[in-house]
């Protein structure tokens, strides 16, 4: 197990032996939950909106907070959702997603790293803690969990990434981020961090590769076994270069 998984909750980068900080999104990077979430969103919306094909309006919005996904889907479909509907759908999504498996290879990849690792998520902290605990990934993060319900603006705003860097005593230039969504990459890039795009989870599509590169991903990869190599190259050169 990586030594950083045992770090104290209050550790700052300046207090640790390090060559940078790795910050991972949760859904779609640590937990293979985005496809599960999409299926639940589509099912719940189509049950409320007869005759609407919800998948085309939901898929481009993945990575945003559920409330914003639902607002965007409502606008695109020209249908309304009440406050009770939004709350019920959010709970249904979280109940399904919290039982999703870890992304294939993520535990071994994190185990191979010796730098501080944090999580920055657009989900609620209670959900993130439950998902990481159930999959055994919580050991890599300790209390280094930064969630959208603790900042003023969720992704695609940079707030959660800036909060993570500040709490860890790191500058944005010291942070390497792994993200799977356009909202997340936009947020990390706006924070001034180097970003890797991951497309190996169950919800990824070929079109996503070009989309993620176009909004700021330095490199896009689909196999978590490659992550330690990218981290090492970034630590050595300050840039993650394509093969």
Automatic annotation (TrEMBL):
Protein name as catalogued: HAD family hydrolase
InterPro entries assigned: Beta-PGM-like, HAD-like_sf, HAD-SF_hydro_IA, HAD_sf, PGP-like_dom2
Matching PANTHER family: 6-PHOSPHOGLUCONATE PHOSPHATASE (PTHR46193:SF10)
Entry keyword set: Hydrolase, Magnesium, Metal-binding
Reported cofactor(s): Mg(2+)
Alphabetized NCBIfam families for the sequence: HAD-SF-IA-v3
Coiled-coil stretches noted in the UniProt entry, renumbered to this chain: none
Molecular function terms, GO-annotated: hydrolase activity; metal ion binding
Family membership noted in the UniProt record: Belongs to the HAD-like hydrolase superfamily. CbbY/CbbZ/Gph/YieH family.
UniProt superkingdom: Bacteria
Higher taxonomy: Bacteria, Pseudomonadati, Pseudomonadota, Betaproteobacteria, Burkholderiales
């Amino acid at each position: 197990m990586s030594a950083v998984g045992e770090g104290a909750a209050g550790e700052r980068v300046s207090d640790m032996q390090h060559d940078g900080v790795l910050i991972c999104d949760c859904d779609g990077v640590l937990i293979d939950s985005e496809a599960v979430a999409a299926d639940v969103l589509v099912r719940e919306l189509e049950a409320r909106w007869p005759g609407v094909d919800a998948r085309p309006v939901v898929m481009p919005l993945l990575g945003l907070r559920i409330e914003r996904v639902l607002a965007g889907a409502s606008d695109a479909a020209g249908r309304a959702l009440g406050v009770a509907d939004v709350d019920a759908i959010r709970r249904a999504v979280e109940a399904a997603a919290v039982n999703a498996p870890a992304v294939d290879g993520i535990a071994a990849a994190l185990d191979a790293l010796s730098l501080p690792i944090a999580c920055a998520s657009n989900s609620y902290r209670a959900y993130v803690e439950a998902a990481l605990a159930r999959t055994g990934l919580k050991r890599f993060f300790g209390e280094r969990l930064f969630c959208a319900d603790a900042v003023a603006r969720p992704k695609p705003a940079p707030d959660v990434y800036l909060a993570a860097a500040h709490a860890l005593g790191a500058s944005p230039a010291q942070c390497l981020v792994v993200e799977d969504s356009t909202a997340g990459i936009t947020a990390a890039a706006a924070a001034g961090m180097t970003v890797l795009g991951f497309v190996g989870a169950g919800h990824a599509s070929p079109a996503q590769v070009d989309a993620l590169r176009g909004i700021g991903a330095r490199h896009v990869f689909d196999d978590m076994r490659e992550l330690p190599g990218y981290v090492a190259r970034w630590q050595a050169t300050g840039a993650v270069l394509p093969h």
